Amino acid sequence: SATSHTAPTSPTVPDLDPDEYQRAKRKLKKAVLEHYRGLETLENYRILNLTGFRKALKKFEKVTHIPAQKLYMSEKVDTTALSTDVSLRDMMEEMDDLFAVQFTNGDKKSARAQLRQMSGHTTHHYSTFRSGLLLGLAVPALVSGLYQSFQHETREAISGWPALLCVYGILTVPTVFSLLIGLNLVTWARTRINYVFIFELDLRTCVDYREYFEMPSLFVATLCYAFYLSFARIGASHVSPTTWPLVWMGLIALVMFNPLPAFYQPSRFWLTKSIAKLFISGTRRVEFTDFWMGDQFCSLIYVLSNIYFIPCVYVKGFDNYQQCGASSPHWPAQFVIAVLPLVIRLVQSVKRYLDSHLITHLINGGKYGSGIIAYLFYFLWRHHGKISWTFRHLCDYLMDWSVLHVRSEHPLLRDELLYTNHIPMYYFALVTNVVIRFLWIFYLPDIGPSMHLRTFIVAMAEMLRRWQWNFYRLENEHLGNMDQYRVTREVPLPYSLDDVRHNRDDDEVE
């Protein structure tokens, strides 16, 4: 009988999408960088332990006068993996070669420069000087602008004076908030809260907290001078006082969205990307940066709800600003914009529950759901809100700050604290958080300041509350990372580890 001969079949090569390939390559590059950072962290951990042994033994010799360091190190320490860095160095050199071949066209010098974990600057004297100079220049403009704005002749000369003040109030809240975030960074850095890891920043490109102040200082200074030019009516015969807010917003847009490598381009890109991710919440895994950013915008609802007010008064005229308020026929548009951060945080909480099946995320989502309902009643009737605000500040304490532990060393706080030199500030935060949460009652009296002024005061108070909240939220997150021994990020890979194990099993069978 004739024997049939079958030619060996070559493995099928799948059709690869070039765009998908580039996306996978970028993911792998991030994973390699994070893996290399983990190796550097492990090397630092090894050196720290060896240094600790030597210092402890040196102290022992000093107290007991027994020369034990050399003998103990040779018998107990030098025989362990901590004593040598050969394995780590081999792995790091292997990653150098691999990174050079795959990502830098064989350029090992460029590969090492990208892999090494180091910041770009060592001193920040010029950054600090520029920030201080800008803030110093802002003070006289602010004081003079405030004085001019409340003069009787200014009110008479500027058409729509209340609306112009309202526009500057809307612009002031986020500008001051950005400056206060810098104080958060200062505190986190000095108390060794690893905010770079928590926010998943790239240490090679992220700005130091002293550099961070430059851009908020620029925004504050230019806003103060725009405010001064408006109410001092400089050049009013040629330039309307209402033009300067538009000039300032154009300047901010030019700085923030400038594609040139200036004004800390990587950091600006990170901020823009983080904000853009909020609009696709629910379609991707929710990280700490996502819900932290969402919480910041939840405290800027005054700004968001009045974004519509700015183009409205410029279109309808500053004299007709009453047609653009919360009582205008256009209030649904303001309501939708105002609750957008709350909707985003609600979607993020539901997504986190679906990913982890932890009921705490649903409870946290209820906080934002109740906030949406409360703001609906705020626009319909200002008297609603007690249940929502009570629920929300309890979530702040129990979930975001992890306090109210009755049996801890410091009553009503928690067992582990990082701001140990400022224990009274914890209790101050507990009280002020409640007070500011209930500032909605400020809207109830029929007499007193105008509703525009009340809204601005409440918005500034809420912004300060969020600034205070940031200190303890990052502290709690840092302590959680310490408890779980997390020092490296979980970078998504373009393949499943289960598939890799399955392929290895198939290879072993063959």
Automatic annotation (TrEMBL):
The keyword Membrane applies. One of its GO terms (cellular component) is plasma membrane. Residues 1-74 form the SPX domain. One of its GO terms (molecular function) is inositol hexakisphosphate binding. Residues 325-505 form the EXS domain. It comes from the Eukaryota. It is a multi-pass membrane protein. Its main location: membrane. CDD domains: SPX_SYG1_like (cd14475). InterPro entries: EXS_C (IPR004342), SPX_dom (IPR004331). The chain crosses the membrane at residues 132-150, 162-186, 218-236, 242-264, 291-310, 330-347, 359-381, 425-444. Belongs to the SYG1 (TC 2.A.94) family. This is EXS-domain-containing protein. It comes from Fistulina hepatica ATCC 64428.
